[in-house]
């Protein structure tokens, strides 16, 4: 349960942080991306999605919110797309490790890296490096909590699509212009049956989207920058996505708190 007066680390004094960590030593690091999201959504969409979800999870669980990391790392095919500012995997991994190590100095012992952008390649490496040093870190991508869209969506989760636009309409409608939303997409270089889309429950023989060079460069492939069906997005769908993801993310944190109460370091090392 939230006991401190502000949600975010950067809004609190050192003494307020040191007091709050006695109540709850779980810290959430929300990470997004600065990436073009078509003509109808802002380039900060992934960062705003991570921020909005993290705030609701913190309100429910009492977890500390580490300052939002707006920049993210990107697969090769996102680079050179106007509007997108990728950071390299190496930079991203180092940032994640440094942030967790810095927050641990104040007594935080359980870390939850909450990503609303496909950057598993960086978060998994960071998590393993931190694990070697004894840090307890869970890395969660929002689509882990929305498998098969929980019967809320009509189409699979992709990019600037029904899912992301619905969530945007729920969390930051002031930045969305639905009159500009167009349905679009690229073509996979392999049979899409062998690929798992984000948020899709895997079937035998399917590879995750980060396991191969499945795509042509987006700057050559995509006209609008959209992959999917933003025309199907609604605020009501977004509200349900937010509610579902926040509930499941909070359950994971509540389970960790129950197993390892404040002050107890999970025995990673
Ligand atoms: Zn996105």
TrEMBL record:
Top-rank taxon of the source lineage equals Bacteria
Q: Which cofactor does it need?
A: Zn(2+)
Question: Which Pfam families does this UniProt record tie to the protein?
Answer: Creatininase (PF02633)
Q: Which UniProt keywords apply?
A: Hydrolase, Metal-binding, Zinc
Q: Which InterPro entries match?
A: Creatininase-like_sf, Creatininase/forma_Hydrolase
Q: Does the keyword Glycosyltransferase apply?
A: no
| Record-linked Gene3D superfamilies | Creatininase
By its UniProt entry, which SUPFAM superfamilies does this protein fall under? Creatininase
- List, in alphabetical order, the Gene Ontology terms for molecular function in this entry: hydrolase activity, acting on carbon-nitrogen (but not peptide) bonds, in linear amides; metal ion binding
GO BP terms, alphabetized: riboflavin biosynthetic process
What family does the Swiss-Prot or TrEMBL record give for this protein? Belongs to the creatininase superfamily.
Q: What is this protein called?
A: Creatininase family protein
